[in-house]
Structures are given as C-alpha cells and as structure tokens.
Amino acid sequence: MWLGDLLRRLRKTSLIFGKLDRGSEGMSTWYIESALAKTSRIILQRGILGEVGLEEWAPCGTPVVVIADPIVLDKHPHLETRLTQWAGPDSIYQLDISEATKNLTTVEKLYQEFGTRHVRRDTVVVAVGGGVLTDTVGYAAATYLRGIKWIAIPTTLLGQVDAAIGGKVAVNVSWGKNLVGAFHLPQAVIIDPQVLHTLPMRQWRAGVGEVMKSALIDGQWLWEQLNDSVPAFGSEEWDSLVEATAGIKVAIVNNDLEETASRMYLNFGHTVAHGLENYLGYGRITHGEAVALGTRVALALSEEVLGLDEAVRRTVEQWMIAWELPLTLSQGDWNAVFEAMTQDKKSRAHGLQWVLLKDVGHPLIYRNLPRKQVQETMERILSI
C-alpha cells in the first residue's frame, strides 16, 4: 500500500509515529511528533490537558490570547483553570461559533479583539475548541499582522483527527466552503482523547466521516480494526482510532504540506460533501454527515469507473448504520448540488477533481467525470 510505504519512510526520518507507552496503572500515552516544515509539533496523550507544560511554546512573559469555546470551558473547568494559570486571568476570550458563523464577519470580530488586547508579532494565540473554531482562529492568526504564532487544542473528534492538523485554515463564504484561507501551521497541536467523552452524539458523527475516509485511503490497520468491530461512540477503543487517524494525516502532510500531490487524497468524499453543505445550508448537516454521504457517492463512482468491488461500499454502509449516520437525503436537487460542487476549491479549469479508489488503500486522482454520470450516481445512491 502506498501509504504504508510512506509511513515506513517517515518513521526513519522526521516523524516519530505512534509511539505507545503504557503506564503501570493502565494509562496509555501516545505521541505523534512531526517536523511539519520544522514549525509544528503534534502531541497526542490521554490526560495531557491536565498536565501539559504550555510554557514550552509561550515562556513566562510572552503575551498570550486564548480563544475558547464556552461549552468546552463549561464542561472542562480544570482546563479553564490551567489556561488561566498559564496565560493570565484576563487572557481568555470566549467565542461561540458554528459552521453558519465560520465566516469573515467572525474573523473581523477576532481582529477587533486582537486590537483591543494589543496583540503583537510575539503574541501567541491559543485556539481551544472544535474544528470550526480552530479553522477560524487559525485563519485570523494567519492574516493578522501578516501572521502570528498560534497553538491548537482541538476538543472534538473532527478537530483531533483532521481539522487542527496540517495548517490548512479557512472560513466559508456564501457561495462555498473554506474558500478563503491560508496555510499557517500552528506551533503545536495538543490532542487529549479524554475530552471526547463529554461530546454529544452529533459531534461524534461530525468527525467520524474523516475516520472512515482515512481507513479507506490507508487500507491497513484502521481499515482492519473497523472491519473487526465498529466501536460505540465514547468507548475506550476510540483512543487508538484517534491516534491512527491523526497519524495517517500527519504522515501525508509531512510528505505534501501544500496539497500538490498526495495530500489531495485526504479530499476523498469531500467533493460531494462540500457541495451538499453549501446546497443544504451550513449547519443543516454536519461536516461528518456530509463526508459520509460523499463517501458513498465516491465509492459508487469508483465502482463504475475503476472497477472497485461493491463490497467495499457495503462495508462502509454498515459502519454508517452502526453509527446512525444518514445514508440518504430526504430531498435533493442534484443539478443544484452539482453547481454547488463546482464552486469548491478542488475545482480546476478542466472541471471537478475527484479522489476515487481503485482498491482499499489505492486512491487515485480522477478528472473530467461526465456531469450526467455524477448526477445520476448521486440520485441513485443518495435518494430515498
């Protein structure tokens, strides 16, 4: 498998991948550390938010601004205490944000807050929350004063396995998802799987599409684990699934930071997903639900174009049923969905760019699929 070869090469070079330390009391500690262009470090450890030495990235005297989701602070008061001890009593700005407000209006509010707090080039901005928050705060950090340092502390499944890793930061505009953005690597991404256990079920579903995607393009341990058993949300098996999914993304990003080659494979299922999110309206469907639906379409197209075994899609559909993800849409104007897809950042002059599977673990970039075929496949796969 191409990704397996890549992981083996990276283990010998810049990446310390999946190092596992099991403590005497059964605690498991994971570290995923990557140079990522020598600017970003990813640390994954259960319970790390109760003990992490944040001073490593912002020593005493360094100005710090924390942008945090108020729901996260309410559910994890120890985290608020730790952040206040580190950054100061007035350092936290609470940002209530959703996919519907992940936009330039919210970025403007952050700019105003940065100005009020006299943010300078040596200030460190810390984003604490889900993928929507880390995307938005990361973009504000990328563009304010032409770029200031930031740290991501993702607290949702989507954030921990995908959104906070790799330095792609962006916000939505009315005609498309993540169309205004930048590459701006955080100094650190601090991942604590323990915080996931307070998530509502819909937040689990919002991230599980990325786990499925990673299993399909990797085709190794993660695929095998999910085939063996589909873990319930909140079960202890998720610690290792988060580690594996995050590690796959770290490995790919190390190889292709600015998405000119293999990083494109991480867009599997996303061509349709972003179109659905735009067509339905941001917030009407979670990103993970949209990716799951987009994955079904991408697998069906892979069957038609590349001869992928239909059993792969049937397996993924069983995962979706187990996790109570939607398999279909109650209504769909497939022409309108396709038009929304053409506004996606993955679109090129020659048309839409697809990631398809020749087999599990063998993704390919495919271009110029006929519009009629795509719309007919969406209708066949996603209609009730």
UniProtKB/TrEMBL annotation:
Top-rank lineage group of the source organism: Bacteria
Catalytic activity: 7-phospho-2-dehydro-3-deoxy-D-arabino-heptonate = 3-dehydroquinate + phosphate
A cellular component annotation (GO) from this entry: cytoplasm
Main subcellular location of this protein, as a coarse class: cytoplasm
Pathway: Metabolic intermediate biosynthesis; chorismate biosynthesis; chorismate from D-erythrose 4-phosphate and phosphoenolpyruvate: step 2/7
CDD domains: DHQS
Residue span, 3-dehydroquinate synthase N-terminal domain: 95-205
One Gene Ontology MF term: nucleotide binding
The 3-dehydroquinate synthase C-terminal domain, residue ranges: 207-347
Cofactor: Co(2+); NAD(+)
Keywords of the record: Amino-acid biosynthesis, Aromatic amino acid biosynthesis, Cobalt, Cytoplasm, Lyase, Metal-binding, NAD, Nucleotide-binding, Zinc
EC number: 4.2.3.4
Gene3D superfamilies hit by this protein: 3.40.50.1970, Dehydroquinate synthase-like - alpha domain (1.20.1090.10)
One Pfam family this sequence matches: DHQ_synthase
Cellular location(s): Cytoplasm
GO biological process: amino acid biosynthetic process; aromatic amino acid family biosynthetic process; chorismate biosynthetic process
Family: Belongs to the sugar phosphate cyclases superfamily. Dehydroquinate synthase family.
Protein name as catalogued: 3-dehydroquinate synthase
Species this protein is from: Sulfobacillus benefaciens
Lineage: Bacteria, Bacillati, Bacillota, Clostridia, Eubacteriales
